[in-house]
Amino acid sequence: MAFPNSYPSLNPVDIYREHIATNLAPIFGVEPSAVFSKLQWTQTQDKGDLLLPVPALQIKGKKPQQLAAEAGEKFPESDLVGKPVVAGTFLQFFFKPEPLTKTVLDSILKNKKVYGTNSNLGLRDPSDPSKGRKKIIVEFSSPNIAKPFHAGHLRSTIIGGFIAKLYAAIGWDVWKMNYLGDWGKQYGLLANGYKKYGSEEELTRDPINHLFDVYVKINKDSAVQDAPIKELKEKIKLNKEKGESVTELEKELAGLIEESEDEKARKYFKSMEDGDREALALWEKFRALSISKYEQTYARLNIEFDEYAGESKVAPEAIVAVSKELAETGVSEESEGAVIVDFEKHGAKKLGKAIFQRKDGTPLYLTRDIAEIRARYDKYHFDKMIYVVAAQQDLHLAQFFKVTELSGHSEIAEKCQHVNFGMVRGMSTRKGTVKFLDDILRDVADKMHDVMRKNETKYEQIEHPEQVADTLGITAVMVQDMSGKRINGYDFNLEAMTSFEGDTGPYLQYAHARLSSIARKSEVDLAKLLSAKYSLLKEQHAIDLVRLLAQWPDVVQNTVKTLEPATVLTYLFKMTHALSSSYDILKVIGSEPELKEARMALYEAARQVLHNGMSLLGLNPVERM
Ligand code: ARG
């Protein structure tokens, strides 16, 4: 195959890449595949449809500018492309409208939901599908049971859901994993709190809220006890400095500590670690009830996990095995009774030092991740694993990737990637605390409902306004989250995200609803669009729209490189803006039947691409609003 990564039946632009590469290669005296891989897409349509930076070919002997000028002369005009425009060392290629329109609209209207995807890319061996698909684990969301669901979890959920869909679109075998924060001393605290404040009935009815309430109460109790303990410690320190006896005070302190919720939590957790059946049964119940609640909410975001893993599920034997290995390979060392990893000694000064095992022998968050990465590899043999976790944990992830590498498992570490993101500022509901995703989504849906009600006549035509408000609210939250680069934080802004003006979720939904409505009102038979007279689409607006639609498969490919949802959104907004300015010029209603049908083919193709883009982002496009 001359062009191994070319899929003309799925990506119309590949037809042009092949054509340009084949014709340009002999002019430069290079291999066609060399030209093929250097052709770039353009930022704006006035720069052409494909661009060749001549210096990228690294041809010796002549100046790139001269080479570009000569190639511009020699390149033959064809049915597909005109003569290239020479701009300095760049060659700009413009696709000829008529054949492009035919290819692009046919491809979209035939491929429908598949347009933009390419399942060949996930094959282990493209020439032998029987060798199966590449496997990826995407770990995301990963909230902590009973603790608030914070903005970091929101972003992880949205971005992770998107990445999972993206890899599925390019044919990978995707395993979605939620690694719950469901282990540690705080669950001892929660269990004790439940004994004190819990109610079986409320737990079953609303586990997430109930456990959260219990957690808040017991935390308060614990905090109240902290003050006198601190005071006493201070006093002991002062007395020691003065040389006075502290025996009585120390006895008093020991008593306070013994009675404290914190100590009771530690003991309870110890019993969980030691396998106490009763403690574990209670814990299992909290966990299971919480998960069934989570599932309902994730479903609203079109997310379904394949596995609820969690810190509690990391096997103690796996931790023992890994600690042995770290000790044997000299990665870890003892330090004041604890076990640590000193990264400086291993040539990674930036990663500092990390505790692997506490003085009392108990493992930590980091310990569990180190054991877990191994266990996942043994179980799934993934080709890639992505962790979608806030940038606040950059160090934590770098540390456990490095430990994996240092202990002789670089083959695993190499396959792992941390997809990080910045903070959301000011995420709270109008009522206050966020306990789980539901609280935010409900709040934004309410706000969206208010916004919808402002337009009374329109509002009255909507059949299930509450349902639409819910979908629009979810879209609003997600689009605001995905608009910028992942690493940038943003302000959670209810007013801005629910507005129909600007590049918002509601704007995108409106664009989709409008296209759906044109289709309904046109009364054109959508099944017959493939035989429409595309040649009637002569206006520049129509041509430019077709050129944009041609780019979608490339946009998806590029997104796989950036792993930025904004790559998709930027494209969708560009496309919907082009649509908005076309409606007055490319009218459907009132046009002659043939023209009407041709324009409807264009709009239906645009709707399909918008639909595909929104679905990739995890949004549910609405037909009416
Ligand atoms: N539960 C953690 C938190 O809320 C996030 C887990 C991230 N994943 C991991 N493998 N450490 O901070």
Can you lay out the helices and strands and say which pair or pack?
Layout: H1 12-28, H2 32-38, E1 40-41, E2 50-53, H3 64-74, E3 85-87, E4 90-93, H4 97-111, E5 135-139, H5 151-169, E6 173-180, H6 185-197, H7 200-205, H8 207-242, H9 247-259, H10 261-273, H11 277-300, E7 307-310, H12 316-328, E8 333-335, E9 338-342, E10 353-357, H13 365-380, E11 384-388, H14 394-406, H15 410-413, E12 416-419, E13 424-425, H16 437-453, H17 456-461, H18 465-482, E14 490-491, H19 494-497, H20 505-522, H21 540-562, H22 565-580, H23 593-616
Parallel strand pairs: 5-6, 5-11, 6-7, 11-12, 13-14
Antiparallel strand pairs: 1-2, 2-4, 3-4, 8-9, 9-10
Helix pairs in contact: 1-2, 4-21, 6-8, 6-10, 8-9, 12-13, 13-14, 16-18, 20-23, 21-22, 21-23, 22-23
This protein binds arginine (ARG).
Keywords: Aminoacyl-tRNA synthetase, ATP-binding, Coiled coil, Ligase, Nucleotide-binding, Protein biosynthesis
Domain Arginyl tRNA synthetase N-terminal: 14-95
Organism: Endocarpon pusillum
